[in-house]
Amino acid sequence: MKYRFEIICLLLIVGLFVLTQVVGNQFYFFIGFVILQYMVMATAWNILGGYGGYVNFGSAGFLATGAYTAVALINFLDVGLVEQMIAGGIFAGLLGFATGYLTLRLRGVYFAIATLALAIILETIVAHWDYVGGAAGTSILPKRKPELLGELIVDRKAGLFGNYKEFLFFLMGTVAILSVWVARYIENSKLGRGLNAIKDSEEAAECMGVPTLRLKLIATTISGAMMGVAGAPLASYLTFIDPLSAFNLEYAINAIAMPMIGGTVSWAGPVIGALLLGTAQQVSSLWIQSELNLLIVGVVLVVFVIIAPEGIIGWFRKSRQGSSR
Fold first, then answer.
1. CA-CA 20 to 30 A from 228: which of 82, 88, 145, 208?
2. Is the pLDDT of residue 205 over 70?
3. DSSP state of 161
4. pLDDT at 227
5. CB-based contacts of 236: which residues, under 8 Å, 6+ apart?
6. Pairwise CA distance, residues 12 & 190, whole Å
């Protein structure tokens, strides 16, 4: 069937909505939101890092751009969550385009350092921007009865969702599914094949006529936009945001570690990595300090680099090839 994957995506979105209607424990939506947000981050990172071979250490900067775009819009226009996510994606995408234009001529460790510096610069700017709370941060209280296109979205009696956490979970789940669809489409398109050629040998790709800079700019813009969309609901989810939490290095490390664990050669790798590592982090945070989550990420990453350097997807492919001989 030609559109089987798209039909599965639609069924998953419907499944997410059904979950919000039948599951009563809000804690599952609380941790589910984080895992789905990690899935978007990992998928977005993999478009440039996995397909193109350009390691981006500035993921937290793009996520925070989406988050603070949402905060600025709430303070200025009091817009709804969907509009915040669209605007967050647009601004983060533009930031990705500008960053890519300035840094994509750099390669290897120089590009990684440049993207890390971008996140630090953005954090410094936000810390001195009092309109969005500055270094002290700001509290964000979600609307009590938000509406979308005239339809009441959150209300215990008459809304589509009983509370705001269910709404956030459904929105992030929908974004995660759309992100996976975009990544899969890119993987099977000329853009994906061009990025793979750049990853193998950029000089050879240029000699073959591949427009390397244009493809990298497109990948950076799409990747940044997806991270911005994922970051826009952060303030509404936490009900408080400050530069330390929004630009937390944990986001950048997780965005890299999850595709590395799942496998960077396929759209499924970041999904598997996010589900495994995100779930492990959320479950472990119930018994140990959340700061130790990075220790879990580090240990798991080292183990996978030693045992399965191409991730779970690569390990399965090698095992299948070995058994077929």
1. 145
2. yes
3. B
4. 96
5. 70, 81, 84, 140, 142, 164, 168
6. 27
